[in-house]
Amino acid sequence: MKTNIRLSFFTISEGVFTIGLKFPDPVILEGLKEIDADQIMAHFKDERSEYPELERLITAYDETDKPGEKAAIFQEYFEQAMLLWVTGKVNSPGIESLAHLKDRVVKSLERILSTGPGEKETIVVFTSATPVSIITGNLLKLDDLKTMEITFNLNNCSVTEFNLKTRGPVLNSFNCTGQFVSWDGTGTFSGSVALFFLVSFCAMVPGHTKAVFCCGWFFAAR
After folding, report:
1. Are residues 200 and 106 in the same domain?
2. How many whole angstroms separate alpha carbon 35 and alpha carbon 129?
3. Residue 214: which H helix or E strand, with range?
4. 3-state DSSP helix/strand/coil percent for the chain, to nearest 5?
5. Cα-based distances in Å from 165 to 113, 162, 168, 170, 206
6. Cβ-contact 95, 43 below 8 angstroms
């Protein structure tokens, strides 16, 4: 379990304990780990002469000393590189393909739902933005490019909620962070407090089958 995921697990465990609930021992699902985006971006940095737009972004990033500009350029480069990866422009040993990523994430979701808890119990799966997007895209039957666009737009700790009905999933909310607004309405809580409220929210999920996806966390509740 990666350090940030481990920290998230223990933080939420503490939050669950404070509201009088018992948190089970974790089960590691390798299929829900994040794609190695750094590896993909490094690949395109080496191949940038074939992609003029990436060449422009890398040059602009190296030439500016302004943190805000660097952040914006990096985000644009990240998005361009990941979209090229989605369209099959990476054929390098050691870099995971989109097909493999989708297969392992969807199989992990199927495992969660097929071995799910009893009525009114909750499953919490700690994952990251790309697996959350793959699950959302799969349930909504989006194409690969639209699914990747979800990844770019997910807020940290946002909540995307589905009702999982026999007729198919119904989207209740997407990329919501309203539960984290601070008391004065101008900012957000610290991570630990936000997680506590997130746990409290999940503890109140009704008994019918429901899934709540978060950027960094995935909740499936029945």
Report:
1. yes
2. 9
3. strand 210-214
4. 55, 15, 30
5. 12, 9, 5, 7, 14
6. yes
Which range of residues forms the domain containing residue 72? 38-86
207 burial via Cβ count (<10 Å: 0-12, 13-18, 19+): exposed
User: What is the total count of domains within the chain?
Assistant: 2
Mean pLDDT check: name the lowest of 11-15, 77-81, 175-179, 190-194: 190-194
Q: Name 46's Cβ contacts closer than 8 Å, sequence gap at least 6.
A: none
Amino acid at 121: E
Task: Indicate whether 160 belongs to any domain.
Answer: yes
| Shared-domain flag, residues 167 and 138 | yes
Say if residue 173's pLDDT is above 80. Answer: no
Question: Measuring CA to CA, which residue among 138, 169, 173, 168 is closest to residue 154?
Answer: 173
d(CA 187, CA 196): 17
Among all chains, which residue has been given the structure tokens 């097929």? 114
Quote the pTM value: 0.75
126 and 197 part of one domain: yes
